[in-house]
Amino acid sequence: MRLFFKYTGYTLLTIVLLLLLYLGSAWALSHVTVKAEANNVHQVPVYIKTSPVHTDLILPVKTELKDWSQSILYTNTRTCDTAFNYISFGWGDKGFYLETPTWADLKASTAFKAAFWLSTSAVHTNYLKKVKEGKNCVKVELSNEQYQRLITFIQNSLQTTAAGQPIAISTAKPYGDHDAFYEAKGRYSLFHTCNTWANNALKSCGQKACWWTPFANGIQYQYEQ
What we know:
Blueprint: H1 2-30, E1 33-34, E2 44-50, E3 55-60, E4 86-93, H2 94-99, H3 108-115, E5 121-128, E6 137-142, H4 144-157, E7 179-183, H5 194-204, E8 209-210, H6 216-224
Antiparallel strand pairs: 1-8, 2-3, 2-6, 3-4, 4-5, 5-7
């Protein structure tokens, strides 16, 4: 019995130390800034929208470089409404997206699978008529060349058909009238979260970012400076 308590104590201590190491690394590395590229050409507005747990990127629906409505189809939304100026993108764990519309719906099995690479991923898109800037929604101005890199990053995050079209998840229940879910590449984990994806997207187009962050407050910190 004494051995049981001894090894149980060691196990719990190890878990606590690993958790502290993870949180400490997340805090420290999210405060290391990857500087933005020098850019004097402001051609495309992009918005970084954060919540306490998640980060979305909001892009214009149509520019000379990309018309997202040709691949993220309006017909995949509940209303099929076409009167929108912006579209948001967020990457994340498929189980979280589809099975956890609220925190009250969170299951231990969903969280475990998400944390340890045991689930697939999805991209959540949402059409918007306008964007309101504020503390949790920051605008950055990209050049066309930078925006093309961001387009490529997002496209490379989506699974596609043989014809190159993103694969809508027809069984997904939308959160609202103007959103939809798509099959994505990659696996969610403690080390590659929805916020890590958004942070990497910002790096891809030369914007200020964290060295690494699993949390939304890392990105918030960078844009509050």
